[in-house]
Amino acid sequence: MAFRKALKHTAMVGGGAVATVFGLSQLIEYRKTQARLAHVAAEAELRVPFADEFPSRQAQLAALQNTEEFDVLVVGGGATGAGCALDAVTRNLKTALVERSDFSSGTSSRSTKLLHGGVRYLQKAIMQLDYEQYMMVKEALHERANLLEIAPHLSAPLPIMLPVYKWWQLPYYWAGIKMYDLVAGAQCLKSSYVLSKAKALEHFPMLKKDKLVGAIVYYDGQHNDARMNLAIALSAVRYGAAVANYTEVMHLLKTKDPQSGQEKVCGARCRDVITGHEFDVKAKCVINATGPFTDSLRKMDNQETKNICQPSAGVHIVIPGYYRYLRNPLKGRFVGISKA
Questions:
Q1: Are 213 and 157 in contact (CB under 8 A)?
Q2: Which coenzyme or cofactor does it need (predicted)?
Q3: How would you list the strands of the sheet with 242-244, edge to edge?
Q4: Which of 137, 188, 200, 231 is deepest in the core (most CB within 10 A)?
Q5: In terms of domains, do 210 and 124 share one?
Q6: Nearest CA-CA partner of 112 in 309, 334, 331, 330
Q7: For 92-131, what is each residue's pLDDT tens digit?
Q8: 243 membership: H or E segment, kind and range
Q9: Which domain holds residue 296?
Q10: How many domains are contained in the chain?
């Protein structure tokens, strides 16, 4: 009875969700097509020089010191900072980026390495009819496809197996994962499928055998986050941005706004961590891309400003590949294990 009830519930939810997802997908694809056409038209108008060779760090430091004023100064050389720099310089903005350590030395090299849309967010979107959650999943899946296309040397599809220990969960999870495939549309990496108990144990012999019903396999992406970060930073350099690692911001430069009479940030005092040499970098706009150190830079502008960043941490355990996915006995959740 429980199985039939779950199956009926799954069919009802799945049917309504399919119709909703299909309609939303068509609308979003239309809007994205229009956006692509607009992007192509804009790209035809804009031609940004692309350097064949990388300048040395000394040349980059010289550019930072000798440029009278940049349009944009990005503080932080992680994924966000490098992305901001690349976006700005390809819009023909005079761009600079400084990083006090090395590129991707912080959070950007400590991710799960996954390129995923978020299966659990899709579940919330369907169950709670949350359009924003749906849009987030749709956009994430679109970006997953982009990264797999533009950086095949740094990313690849990754099969993920979800063990199932109750009969009613098999059709329920299967319907949810199929929705995930449907939302991805033409950008679906590979269709999900069901494995029998025997096949699941054949692939993952370390799984708990007791009450195992089977498994569901679906596909997401995986990438080298640190090298991707570096590739983005180097791309910004080749488009003309002045980018320097081991360059620390000591304090922000300020000037009075002639209209309001209030002080505004106009650059930063920087220090070459290797040599200790200090210099000023003037900029019309300063972007704070320092991740967990966001509040430290904000307090350089105003010591009395309240903290807005609440650091959090996750744990990634690297063990031999044959463990792969284990059930967490404490919380009943699945813990992803990266292959060593």
A1: no
A2: FAD
A3: 242-244, 95-98, 70-75, 278-288, 263-272, 247-256
A4: 137
A5: yes
A6: 334
A7: 999 999 999 999 999 899 888 889 888 888 988 988 999 9
A8: strand 242-244
A9: 67-109+227-301
A10: 2
Please, what sign has the CA dihedral across residues 141, 147, 152, 158? negative
Tokens representing 288? 């704070």
**CA distance linking residue 95 with residue 85, whole number of Å:** 6
User: Which of 217, 42, 84, 223 shows the shortest CA–CA distance to 143?
Assistant: 223
For residues 104 and 225, is the Cβ–Cβ distance under 8 A? Answer: yes
Residue type, 10: T
Hey, what's the torsion of the CAs at 299, 303, 308, 313, to 10 degrees?
60
- Tell me the one-letter amino acid at 36: R
The confidence score (pLDDT) of residue 334 equals 44
Residues 99 and 242 in one domain: yes
For the chain, first and last CA: distance in Å?
44
pLDDT tens-digit series, residues 31-68 = 556 555 555 555 555 567 777 788 999 999 999 999 99
Tokens 């912080």 correspond to 106
Which CATH number characterizes residue 292's domain?
3.50.50.60
Query: Is residue 333 included in any domain, yes or no?
Result: no
C-alpha neighbours within 13 Å on the C-beta side of residue 263: 9
Read off φ and ψ for residue 188, nearest 5 degrees: -65, 130
